[in-house]
Amino acid sequence: MQEPESLLLTDKAFLALRELLTGGGLRAGQFVSMSDLVKLIGIPLAPVREAVKRAESAGFVSILPKRGVAVMEASPEQIRECFHLRTIFDQEGAREMVRKRLGNQLDDLRRTHQAILNAARAGITPSLQREAMTVDWAMHAALADALANPGAAEIYARIRDRILIMQYSRPLLPDRIVPAMEEHLAIMDAIDAGHEEEAARLVRAHCIQTLRWWGIIAAEPEA
User: Fold this and answer.
1) How far apart are CA 206 and CA 170, in angstroms?
2) How far is the C-alpha of 208 from the C-alpha of 198, rounded, in Å?
3) Beta bridge partner(s), residue 62
4) How many whole angstroms from its chain centre is CA 187?
5) Helix (H, G, I), strand (E, B) or coil at 70
6) Residue 171: what pLDDT?
7) Pair 55, 17: CB distance under 8 Å
């Protein structure tokens, strides 16, 4: 059965809007009028309006009646909430990988992490920063995929998009690349060695360090 054209346009509009949000075309906390959104997306008003409603239900934006659309804020509360939820999924994903002995599925990720780590130690470039972000998310996706739970995957994708939207509210910090890659490699080592609770602990520690990078948790004082 063929889908109505309006529904297809709404889907296209939502995908385009999500790309704008997660790709930095629209920034956290930004306000945009509906007419500007129509121009940015290049699809008529009615499908764009429906796409915005869908984005609001996902927590990406807020609709301000007769004014326009406000992109979600990168507030400390939002950042904590998203990373807390991601950590819950990641910890259980790490445990599942140990239980199912899926450590060998991380071999390719291990190689790409090590390559990023080696390159970062030699010198960080803007392109390496972008590549590091992609590799970082691939690791988290692997942990979520280990749950093999469609419902969890849907929630996880929403959390990922919200974090991506907020990431563009601040510049990438080059000095986070090396420790992030090292933390991921330690998690993979624990999974490969069959240490279930150690893997979960390292996932939690990684989250704490990430929140420090965001400025949500105070940095530990130097000895």
Assistant:
1) 19
2) 15
3) 70
4) 18
5) strand
6) 64
7) yes
In the sheet with 68-71, reading across from the earlier edge strand, the strands are: 31-32, 68-71, 61-64
Residues 6+ apart with CB under 8 A from 90: 140, 143, 144, 203, 207
Q: Return the ∠ at Cα 119 (arms to 209 and 127), rounded to 5°.
A: 85
Name the 3-class secondary structure at 26.
coil
> Exposure string (b/e) for 134-152, b if CB count within 10 Å is 16 or more?
ebbeebbbbbbbbbebeeb
Any idea what DSSP says for residue 31? E
CATH topology of domain 5-71: Arc Repressor Mutant, subunit A (1.10.10)
Q: Where exactly does CATH 1.10.10.10 map onto the chain?
A: 5-71
Please tell me the distance from the alpha carbon of residue 207 to that of residue 89, in angstroms, as a whole number.
Answer: 12
pTM above 0.85, yes or no: yes
Spatial distance between the Cα atoms of 56 and 54, rounded to a whole number of angstroms: 5
Domain over 76-214 is classified CATH 1.20.120.530:
yes
pLDDT digits (tens, 9 = 90+) for 16-63: 999 999 998 999 999 999 999 999 999 999 999 999 999 999 999 999
3-state DSSP assignment of residue 62 = strand
Tell the residue number behind the tokens 């998310």, with chain if given.
137
According to CATH, where is 1.20.120.530 located in the chain? 76-214
Q: Please state, as a whole number, how many other Cβ atoms lie within 10 Å of the Cβ of residue 70.
A: 16
